[in-house]
Amino acid sequence: MVESFGVAPQVVAAIIRTWEQQAGFVREIDLHELAELPGAQSRVLAALRTFPAPSRAVIDSIADRLGEMTSALKLFDAETGATDRTAAERFRQLPGR
Length: 97
Fold this sequence. Notes:
Shape: rod-shaped
Structural class: mainly alpha
Strand content: under 5%
């Protein structure tokens, strides 16, 4: 049995939208607001509050990585589409039999 390989454009577009959204959400994390949350705090949240400058750098790094992944996937999507169109055109140009 041969497995087929395919790239569904709607799936790629959904991933791109999700990564773009998540990068924005991550970048908008407000450490000052986190410090004011009531109730029991996790160790991660305590570390974020205790070390705001390094925490901000990590948050920005995560958002940047999501942005870089989005850019790479957009390029993949564009190049895959162009390659598919080129290959399809070559098949259309084959002489009839």
